[in-house]
Design brief:
With about 140 residues, the protein is mostly beta strands. It is built from 1 helix and 7 strands; from the N terminus they run E-E-E-E-H-E-E-E. The relative contact order is 0.18.
Length: about 140
């Protein structure tokens, strides 16, 4: 069997951002992205972890039209929040105590995503330790 890289993808997105810089020792960013990704193959190998989980086309003579869909790596809504807060203790940093206690910061980064497509599949298990009639459902 021969494999080739005949895949394509399209990405469109709208990004917005709000920044606060140096306000009472606080610097922060709030970002939001709305996007959409289309492709005909999200992964070169068959997986069970997201959209487009089969690496072979349903029609081997037409690998384009029947495979067009929202990408398995599509995250349409992404929100990001970051902040850095400079602790106002011993800002002048005089002497040993000032150098030990001054200049500290607190920071954090959060990223929240929703909407990734998933494929629900059932895999019949045929092991000698598990009855053949059982099945498992994997969701993402």
């Amino acid at each position: 069997m021969e494999r080739g890289n005949f895949a394509w993808s399209k990405y469109n997105g709208l990004q917005s951002e709000l920044r606060i810089g140096g306000w009472h020792g606080l610097s922060s960013t709030l970002a939001y992205t709305y996007s959409r990704t289309f492709d005909n193959a999200s992964e070169v190998y068959s997986t069970i972890s997201g959209g487009n989980t089969v690496s072979f086309a349903q029609n081997p003579f037409n690998t384009d039209r029947g495979e067009r869909a929202v990408s398995g790596i599509d995250y349409p809504h992404v929100v990001g929040v970051t902040f850095v807060y400079e602790i106002p203790l011993q800002k002048e940093q005089h002497g040993f105590v000032g150098h030990a206690l001054g200049g500290w910061q607190m920071s954090s980064t959060y990223r929240y995503t929703v909407g990734q497509p998933y494929t629900t599949i059932q895999i019949p298990l045929s092991s000698s330790t598990i009855p053949a009639a059982s099945a498992t459902t994997l969701r993402r």
